[in-house]
Protein: GM23371
Organism: Drosophila sechellia
Amino acid sequence: MYQPSLKVQPAEVSVLNATGRVGMPTEANCLNQLAHVHRLRDSELNYNEHQYNLNMQMLRNHEGLGVPLKMGMERFAARQVGRLPFLPSSNFMDDVLTGRCDSIGFEDFMNLPEYSEQMRQPHAVVEKSLGIYQ
């Protein structure tokens, strides 16, 4: 008799978000909720953060708490640098601090939707980010 694994529980969707419009690939809709998601997807999404945490733990064991704490504060400060809302950030400072600027991965050349170069109205985007609607 088949018994499901305790580690991997199937996720059942209780309410489907059905809309009559075509959405972006990142939005939750019926097809995206029912589509099969491979197990490696979550692993690949968290790979860089997991690698960074392993490196910081190894550095902490070797050098002590000061160096990873300083590097974490530098990374936090690099993330706080902002741009105007209609200009997407490349996160280059974060890539330099984590060492990802030296590697070329799929996300660099597969043209992900969040890196698409679509021109939006700057005034509308700033007004939306400030909560000013007309």
